[in-house]
Amino acid sequence: MLAKIQETASFIREHMHTSPETAIILGTGLGSLVNEITDKYEIKYENIPHFPVSTVEGHSGKLIFGKLGDKDIMAMQGRFHFYEGYSMKEVTFPVRVMRELGIKTLFVSNAAGGMNPDFEIGDLMIITDHINHFPEHPLRGRNIDYGPRFPDMSEAYSRSLIAKAKEIAAEKGIRVVEGVYVGVSGPTFETPAEYKLYRIFGGDAVGMSTVPEVIVAKHCGIRVFGMSVITDLGVEGKIVEVTHEEVQAAADKAQPFMTEIMRELINRAES
Ligand code: HPA
User: Is the CB of 100 under 6 A from ligand 1?
Assistant: First the structure.
């Protein structure tokens, strides 16, 4: 496993002309951030040794190196989901490669169903914490020496970045909410009873990604900031049929606001 990660990292390093310490997983809501990256250099996942290849509609797969404002960044356009059939090791492989490449901070986004009754469709939720409800743990198996066998999770999402993001949203007059993200395998959206359960668990939103990558990032010593676009509501009395297309449409509307906060945060974040 470690040998593969290192082989992949050395392949990528040969193509890099910068040394970014910031990585971004361009999940739902952040697709257009790619248009703001300058001095771009791209590598398709299919050309990277040991890299999984993404399959989901609307997610093309490539690594992008370049600048966002003044900052050198590395971005993943297209992520790997557990529901696609990838193992947890594959889902999180790119994060371990990031660690080998010297990444210190990771920014992630996703789409999620809101369970907090105060949430509205199109809201941006700053992720303050998560509940891992995937059926397999990404760190199960022999420990890789990037971090301890039993990693601390008391601050999975950087408090200082959360505070900065709230400041930025307030400055720009963008409504943001905060909450706990419940990570589930999918691919089904939740039944009303499941939404209710995840709310009782302590969740504010539920989605099918992010948690595995964040766990592995924390294990590697990478700090994390994450945001969800609330694309549908799992709130009793407001539950209607959900389709992937509706989720996309709600996300597209919220995208400019999420992009604005992330761009600014990435620029202001130290390192
Ligand atoms: N549940 C799970 N994942 C999701 C949802 C949802 O309601 N909306 C967007 N991704």
Answer: no
The predicted-structure confidence for 143-185, as pLDDT tens digits, reads as follows 999 999 999 999 999 999 999 999 999 999 999 999 999 999 9
Q: Whose CA is nearest to atom 9 of ligand 1?
A: 112
What separation in Å is there between the alpha carbon of 196 and the centre of ligand 1? 14
Residue type, 190: E
The residues spanned by each domain of the chain are 2-268
Q: Who's near 44: CB < 8 A, 6+ residues apart?
A: 61, 62
The answer, yes or no, to whether any atom of ligand 1 lies below 6 A from the CB of 114, is no
| Residue closest to 201 by CA, chosen among 103, 130, 95, 98 | 130
pTM across the whole model: 0.94
- For ligand 1, is residue 254 a contact (CB within 6 Å)? no
Give the integer Cα–Cα distance in Å for 96 and 216: 7
User: Is 2-268 CATH 2.40.50.180?
Assistant: no
